[in-house]
């Protein structure tokens, strides 16, 4: 099993608080009839880059795992959609229609827009469903 899969499984167990979860496809899982899309970036970085794509937007929550299973953010998809549709959102130059964000755990923020636009995500850090 890859390290990212080990971290994803550990975070799913924390979020679900022991409840059953089912794989919905790829890295999307269902807990209590809600979809959780979970992305994992390993390493000790100051910022963790992610993109917002159609699969993300189909979930109820986006989960960003940063470094290991001890640091993650459980973010409602409404907030993800706000960043994605913001006129200042940074486009992903590799994939048309996608946008990119950077999670900065040291500051508990996501930078998502040109000019350094950001939101505070501290209240979503290491929470459960």
Shape: globular
DSSP strand content: 35-45%
Question: Number of DSSP strands?
Answer: 10
**Average pLDDT level:** 97
Describe the structure.
This protein is of the alpha+beta class and 129 residues long. The protein has one domain. Helix content is 21%, strand content 40%. The protein has 3 helices and 10 strands. It has helices spanning 3-16, 54-57, 77-85, and strands spanning 22-25, 28-31, 34-42, 48-52, 61-67, 72-76, 90-91, 99-104, 109-113, 117-120. The strands form 2 sheets. It has a 5-stranded mixed sheet. The protein starts with a helix and ends in a 9-residue tail after the last strand.
Short description:
With 129 residues, the protein is α+β, with helices and mostly antiparallel strands.
For this entry, give a set of tags:
129 residues, alpha+beta, 21% helix, 5-stranded antiparallel sheet, 40% strand, 3 helices
Task: Give the SSE map.
Elements: H1 3-16, E1 22-25, E2 28-31, E3 34-42, E4 48-52, H2 54-57, E5 61-67, E6 72-76, H3 77-85, E7 90-91, E8 99-104, E9 109-113, E10 117-120
Parallel strand pairs: 3-5
Antiparallel strand pairs: 1-2, 2-3, 4-8, 5-6, 7-8, 8-9, 9-10
């Amino acid at each position: 099993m890859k390290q990212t899969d080990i971290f994803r499984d550990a975070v799913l167990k924390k979020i679900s608080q022991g409840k059953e979860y089912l794989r919905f496809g790829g890295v999307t899982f269902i807990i209590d009839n809600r979809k959780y899309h979970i992305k994992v970036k390993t390493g000790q970085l100051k910022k963790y880059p992610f993109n917002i794509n159609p699969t993300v937007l189909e979930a109820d929550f986006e989960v960003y795992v940063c470094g290991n299973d001890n640091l993650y953010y459980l973010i409602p998809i409404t907030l993800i959609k706000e960043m994605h549709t913001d006129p200042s959102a940074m486009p992903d130059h590799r994939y048309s229609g996608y946008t990119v964000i950077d999670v900065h755990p040291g500051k508990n923020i996501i930078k998502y827009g040109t000019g350094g636009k950001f939101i505070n995500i501290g209240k979503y850090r290491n929470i459960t469903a």
